[in-house]
Amino acid sequence: MAIEYACFMSYRHAEGDLSNNLIDELYKALSDELEPYFGKGSVYLDKERFKAGDFFNEGIIGALYHSVCMICVYTPF
Questions:
Q1: Residues 6 or more apart from 60 whose CB is under 8 A from it?
Q2: DSSP three-state, residue 6
Q3: Hey, what's the torsion of the CAs at 40, 41, 42, 47, to 10 degrees?
Q4: Residue 10: which of 37, 66, 58, 49 has the closest Cα?
Q5: Roughly how many angstroms between the first and final C-alpha of the chain, as a whole number?
Q6: Which residues, at least 6 apart from 12, have a Cβ–Cβ distance to it below 8 Å?
Q7: Percent of the chain's residues with pLDDT above 90
Q8: pLDDT band at residue 49 under the 50/70/90 scheme
Q9: 5 and 44 in contact (C-beta within 8 Å)?
Q10: What is the pTM of this model?
C-alpha cells in the first residue's frame, strides 16, 4: 500500500460561513504543518456531500485507504 496522504479529513458539510471558515482554517493549518514532511497536497479534504443511504465513491475510498490517519471533525452545526 502506497501512502499518498498524511491524513484524510472528514466533516459534516453544513451551510454557513462559520462552518466553512473552521474547516478551511483547520485544513490550512494541517497542510502548513505537514507540507515540510509529506509535501504539498498531503491532506485530503473530503468535500463530497452524502445523504443517508448513499455509498462512498471510489475516489474517497482510495484516498482514505492511502492515508496514514483519518481526522473526523465534529461540529455543533
A1: 46, 48
A2: strand
A3: 160
A4: 49
A5: 35
A6: 19, 73, 74, 75, 77
A7: 47
A8: low
A9: yes
A10: 0.77
Residue count (the chain): 77
Round to whole Å and give the CA distance between 2 and 6: 11
> Which one is predicted more confidently, 2 or 55?
2
Q: Is 60 strand, coil or helix?
A: helix
Alpha helices in 6-57 (DSSP H): 17-38
According to DSSP, residue 64 is labeled H
Cα dihedral 66, 67, 73, 77 sign: negative
Per DSSP, the three-state class of 14 is coil
Cα–Cα nearest to 63, from 46, 47, 76: 46
Q: Indicate the domain borders of the chain.
A: 5-73
